[in-house]
Amino acid sequence: MNSPAPGQPIDELALSEIKSAILAKLRLAIGKDAGMATRHDWYKAAALALRDRIVHRWLSAEKQSYDAGRKRVYYLSLEFLIGRLFTDALNNMGLLALFDAALGDLGVGLSDLRKCEPDAALGNGGLGRLAACFMESMATLGIPAIGYGIRYDFGLFRQIINNGWQQEYPDEWLSFGNPWEFQRPEVVYHVHFGGGVEHVETRGRDHAIWHPAETVQAVAYDTPIVGWRGHNVNALRLWSARSPDPLKLDVFNTGDYVGAAAEETRAESICKFLYPNDESPAGRELRLRQEYFFVSASLQDLVKRHLAADGQIRGLAAKVAVQLNDTHPSLAVTELMRILVDLHNIRWDDAWKITVATLSYTNHTLLPEALETWPVELFQRLLPRHLEIIYRINVAHLALAEERCPGDVDFRASVSLIDEKSGRRVRMGQLAFVGSHRINGVSAMHSDLMKETVFHDLNHLYPGRITNKTNGITFRRWLMLANPKLTELLREACGEAVLDDPTRLQLLEKSAGDSAFQDKFRNVKHHNKIALARLIGEKINIKVDPGALFDVQIKRIHEYKRQLLNILEAIALYHAIKDNPQGNWVPRVKIFAGKAAASYRYAKLIIKLINDVAEVVNNDPVVAGRLKVAFLPDYNVSLAEVIIPAADLSEQISTAGMEASGTGNMKLALNGAITIGTLDGANIEIRDHVGVENIAIFGMEAGDVMVRRKQGLDASDVIRGSPGLSRAINAIGSGEFSPDDTHRFESIAHALRHLDHYMVSADFDSYFAAQRGIDARWQTQAAWARASILNVARMAWFSSDRTIAEYAEDIWNVPVNGRAPSEPLRAKG
Ligand code: 26W
């Protein structure tokens, strides 16, 4: 049952079958009849009816891949930022039109029902969303894979903006149940903590026996992930924690009800919430417990599956590839060694070969301070056997370092798994690197910089391990579902096959200058902008004109991402318009959305600044119709799906050298937004693909940034030379936007003047000029439309199918859609 092309009739038999299935679920699974059902009941009934159809494919895909003895990929990630699954699964199953019609006949609209589903926000930002896109692409490419993570009771906090300030509230995403998941009460593993290690000699060999002090149970919950066209379905397996001894009855009977459940509370705390951190390590004991908990359960599970299918632990690397998403699952190196050596009696050297051949690691950040480290003392207390294993790995590793650079103490100190300088800490980045056969960066520039900076010495010691895999995004969610109108136009212009082969987007090139096509393309954008304008009105009561240029910056709030540069430009523009209200100004709406880590005070102050500027600008009649500023609260995947198709301009303005890749940049360009950006992360590759004339590049390059930082962070020189910047900073510092507290933003003004680590002041003039260039382009609507169409036409390479095909070939050595890894697959950039 595949989705009929637009205009094609719906199969009546299939339609009535779906209707009966939904009604049956409503009665038998929800326990209600149509008369008393809420919208939420209908949503659940429809989701369950869909799930039934997915399960058949799921079971047969799993059986087929095991029967064929295929190698499997296990993607270990503490974050999966999935968003909603309902229309995603419907679309991939080819059942969207049918369910739409069925629900319409039943008197409940699909578009209403889909809003009943809460976002699964089990991630902070790019890293978590990448994991979700990868899961979908692996399913699409027919790669048997499981994603392993934690089933957090609370996902990323809900953001409320109160009087301009961010406030955090718990994200109770499971409160109405979750129709997608299957609890597997029989799939339970014991995960141990603490205690001590005993060493005994058996037949001349040392044998370690860990006597843990504490045990937690990991229970599996599986969510099916449907690939495009529904041929293949994989599982996302998330672990929930509980105590093996949930209630101490003797304690309970003494009346100590809290104490009786204390162990359960302690165990459950592991999966209670997602650490709301971004680019800075959590550094808390609970975080390390989370990491070990999910790594141990996942490795036990995959080893058990492997043994059941293959019988041979020694053959693990031939049948299993484990990808570590950042350093968070680095403990997999030591846990796999423990399983092989301590539990399966494999000799150390053989175990090490298996481990390295099985594991690979993706790095997502160059910030040295964002690479996790843990105090040796904490390790000793929580994971004593793992610390021993780390020491032993380090002995051989440092011996190799000595061999390579004899007598070079600094080299040895830099590659060591233990940082001796900062009070002895275990370095998770080094551990993941040493234990992996491939280490990949997430954009060409980032991979190059990895070799030059954080992993310079390790790259020297283990040459050839570092490789690049530029990120990608799934077009099913970020084009087909988010932007159905554009998709319809693309089907018309490039043929149905564009849905299966994005390289067909190239066919748009010939229409890019065609005014009739441009009109259609503009109409689609306008339609999407009306929808966003409505949402902005509903959510924050700001009226915006869909005819204005929609200038969008949506991402985590972070100094290096430079929302501050954007709002500074808004202030300078505001001043310029006020000085000359009769000027030929391009009407603009500056749209921001994003969350700041709860503990990141400065980022939260930036949110307040944006909202304070919005308050002044939006209420000033002099600039009315020319400039509006809107901060949309509670940014999440579902909000992104509305904003992205409506964007004209995509702000990708990080300090050069600091954004590892970015993926929002890809989503926006694919939907026809023109990028204003620095030469950073994947922006560089986007420029290479869309053409330098179809993107606005500005600012310092990574090399310039390093040079300028060495000279000092004072920006007085550039401020003196830039009256617009100087006036904007003065306005912030003097309380022009905060009359109720004129000192509120002094710290920001001070940093802009004297501590310009992120080059906001240094890049301001170049950015301001690039923005005026954007204004000029917007004035010629045909030229704008052409550039926008060419962006869409040239983004095919950024499909996560391409990224995953590269991982499959160069890292995992698994076939893609039945094709051997080395066979040519799809167009490369
Ligand atoms: C330990 C706390 C913590 C949690 C997450 C530290 C750091 C992170 C991540 C590195 C944050 C993240 O999402 N990084 C982003 O990963 C994306 C996918 O590769 C890239 O596109 C972004 O550039 C990178 O910032």
Automatic annotation (TrEMBL):
PROSITE patterns documented for this protein: PHOSPHORYLASE (PS00102)
Cytoplasm as UniProt keyword: yes
Domain of life: Bacteria
Compartments (UniProt record): Cytoplasm
Protein's UniProt keywords contain Transferase: yes
Family: Belongs to the glycogen phosphorylase family.
UniProt source species: Bradyrhizobium erythrophlei
GO biological process, any: glycogen catabolic process
Cofactor: pyridoxal 5'-phosphate
Function of the protein: Allosteric enzyme that catalyzes the rate-limiting step in glycogen catabolism, the phosphorolytic cleavage of glycogen to produce glucose-1-phosphate, and plays a central role in maintaining cellular and organismal glucose homeostasis. Phosphorylase is an important allosteric enzyme in carbohydrate metabolism. Enzymes from different sources differ in their regulatory mechanisms and in their natural substrates. However, all known phosphorylases share catalytic and structural properties.
Pfam families xref list: Phosphorylase
Lineage: Bacteria, Pseudomonadati, Pseudomonadota, Alphaproteobacteria, Hyphomicrobiales
Protein name (Swiss-Prot/TrEMBL): Alpha-1,4 glucan phosphorylase
One MF annotation (Gene Ontology) recorded for this entry: pyridoxal phosphate binding
Catalytic activity: [(1->4)-alpha-D-glucosyl](n) + phosphate = [(1->4)-alpha-D-glucosyl](n-1) + alpha-D-glucose 1-phosphate
Enzyme class, broadest EC rank: transferase
PTM-bearing positions, type N6-(pyridoxal phosphate)lysine: K667
Enzyme Commission no: 2.4.1.1
Gene Ontology, cellular component aspect: cytoplasm
Assigned keywords, A-Z: Allosteric enzyme, Carbohydrate metabolism, Cytoplasm, Glycosyltransferase, Pyridoxal phosphate, Transferase
